[in-house]
Amino acid sequence: MRHLQPHIRYFIAVAEELHFRRAGERLHVAQPVLSRAIRQLEEQLEVVLLQRSRRHVSLTAAGRVFLEECYLAREAMERAEQRAIKADKGEAGRLIVGYTDFAINGVLPSLLATFHRHLAEVSIDLVRCDSHEQLEAIEGGRLDVGFLTGPVSGAGLKQVTVHEAPYMVVLPSHHPLAELKSVSLKALSQEVFVLGNVHTWRHFVSQIKALCFEAGFIPRVVKEAPNSDSIFGLVAAQMGVTIYPDCDLNHNRRDIVLRPLAGTKAKLMTEMVWSSSSTNPVVARFVDIITQTEPVVEHRQN
Questions:
Q1: What integer pLDDT is reported at residue 105 of this predicted model?
Q2: What is the mean pLDDT of the chain?
Q3: How do 50-52 and 122-128 pair as beta strands?
Q4: Which residue, of 37, 70, 88, is where some domain finishes?
Q5: Residue 1 covered by a domain
Q6: CA atoms within 13 A on the CB side of 67
Q7: What CATH number should be reported for the domain holding residue 72?
Q8: Whether residues 102 and 200 fall in one domain
Q9: Fewest CB atoms within 10 A around its CB: which of 2, 38, 194, 247?
Q10: Residue 208 three-state SS
Q11: Which residues in 244-271 are b (16+ Cβ under 10 Å) and which e?
Q12: pLDDT digits over 47-56, tens only?
């Protein structure tokens, strides 16, 4: 196909004009050059595309079919050219985005919707993975952008805090503490806890344990769960209580009760993280759109 491309534009012009001189004038090409190009095209294809006489030029059956395919090829090349230009500007292409439970049940859907309204030609692949896995994948070039639990640090990383969620106490619906308007950490010191798996939720679990330690106790964790739904299910089954950031997911269940965590200003941070050395032009556009249209909390570079 690459040997045919230089002559396709000439063939289309002659096939549409059915006149070599007019086609040459249209393309600003000398008639002999045009005639030679069509002959070379026919020789490469080993078919006759045009019937010629001194006064008349017409398409053969092969020429008509070839013209239809040339139109399709021209459209494909024009589309490829435009997409290449857009991709170079970060307006088209692919973005691989990592997310945690907290991000997807919090601010991330609105952020992605905002970006899609601006650049619908960018394909976004979402990958569920934990915060430490996202950091490794970003540093290794396997993720373009991560939405993870902060604070985080790492050489060559940039980040924006896109959301801060206050902590809530999650209780079984008939728990005695459910009668309170808010629950302090000290009130939880004798409770058993349900938390995320310590290996895959390490960022979050360490923060919860630090909060409890500051309140004077070490949480007694009796159940670990792999995801948010499982945590809430275990709480609903009266297996224990938990502390979880305030987000829409919490409020959609009737078998648990949520109360604000009293006595602390601590919040869970969701950060958008990317590599400062990323070669994907879409990353810069994504970051620009999100930071310009959403009320981000903080922008840092390590």
A1: 86
A2: 89
A3: unpaired
A4: 88
A5: no
A6: 20
A7: 1.10.10.10
A8: yes
A9: 2
A10: helix
A11: bbbbebbeebeebbbbebeeeebbbbbb
A12: 999 998 878 8
Residues whose CB is less than 8 angstroms from the CB of residue 194 and which lie 6 or more positions away in sequence, other chains included:
221, 222, 223, 224, 225, 231, 234, 235, 239, 240, 241, 242
- As a whole number of angstroms, the distance between CA 192 and CA 300 comes to 37
State residue 300 phi and psi, 5-degree precision: -130, 155
DSSP letter assigned to residue 54: S
Q: Please tell me what DSSP assigns to residue 170.
A: E
Buried b (16+ CB within 10 A) or exposed e, 74-103: eeeeeeeeeeeebbeebbbbebbbbbbbbb
Q: Is 134:146 a contact under the CB 8 Å cutoff? A: yes
* Structural domain of 57: 6-88
Angle between helices 31-45 and 20-27 (to 10 degrees): 110
* Same domain, residue pair 247 and 189: yes
Structure tokens at 32: 């002999």
Query: Which H or E run includes 124?
Result: strand 122-128
CATH number at residue 277: 3.40.190.290
Total domains in the chain come to: 2
Instruction: Please name the residues in contact with 63: beta carbons below 8 A apart, sequence gap of 6 or more.
Output: 15, 48, 49, 50
Closest CA to 145 of 106, 105, 95: 95
Mean predicted confidence (pLDDT) in 133-154? 92
What is the pTM (predicted TM-score) of this model?
Answer: 0.75
pLDDT at 299 over 50: no
